[in-house]
Amino acid sequence: MLRVFHPGIPKTGSVIHLDREEAHHLFHVLRARKDEKIIVLNGYGYYAEGHILNGTTQEVIIDSVHFAESSKITLCSALLKNKAMDFLIREATAIGVAGIIPLYTQNSEVKIQNVSEKQMHWHRIAREACKQSGNPYLPTIEIPRKLKDFQFSVPTFVAALRKDAKNIFHYQSEVKNNPVAILIGPEGDFSEQEYQYFIQNNFHFIYLGKHILRAETAALYLLSVIDHICLRTRAPKSPPGDPSPGLGFPA
After folding, report:
1. Which of 28, 34, 216, 248 has a Cα at 20 to 30 A from 200?
2. Which pairs from 145-151 meet CB under 8 Å and 24+ separation?
3. What fold does the segment set 73-230 form as a domain?
């Protein structure tokens, strides 16, 4: 089924007007037609089933409104090269994360000149991934920051090539239904100084199998396993209250 974004999901039976960008993609790229059924997402868990009233006026009638539980996983990743970072954001959004935090680490080689432009680029990728996958939650994507400047306030799991790394299922009770963060290093791995910081802050080192994985592959591997352990409910639910008309996308 076709999917579009709209800032704020109205009540059942109401009519929404798509913005120019969404309408152009829906009618001119996807070739949607009058009365065709679509899904409307707002990026905050509300999603609606509706049908196109009129392609000329860009109007959609809402038939029903639903709500889904959000992910409790934050992905913290060392900055990867352009295509790899874009790929990671796209696939992590499709799997489902609450937020994505790019990090400068000691072995990071990537430098960003225009941070705000890059953040907008990543946001567009995540938005398209939501429409492709049907994930009703658009993750927050923060501006890159130095690893040493970031405060980890939830249990954090580090993909690590270390002898003391454990299988993620060793921490199943900590992971299930609790907010967690996963931390992925650059292609050159974390420095020994960074590993000492992780030890001092009681981070958990996770073994990802016998093969050496690329950073983006390691991130998706660990994210998928933790997402499975969490067993989030993605089935349609009644909204917890009337959707706020002011609900919109992150700036």
Report:
1. 216
2. 145/101, 145/102, 145/103, 145/104, 146/103, 146/104, 147/78, 147/103, 147/104, 147/105, 147/106, 147/194, 147/197, 148/197, 150/76, 150/101, 150/103
3. Alpha/beta knot (3.40.1280)
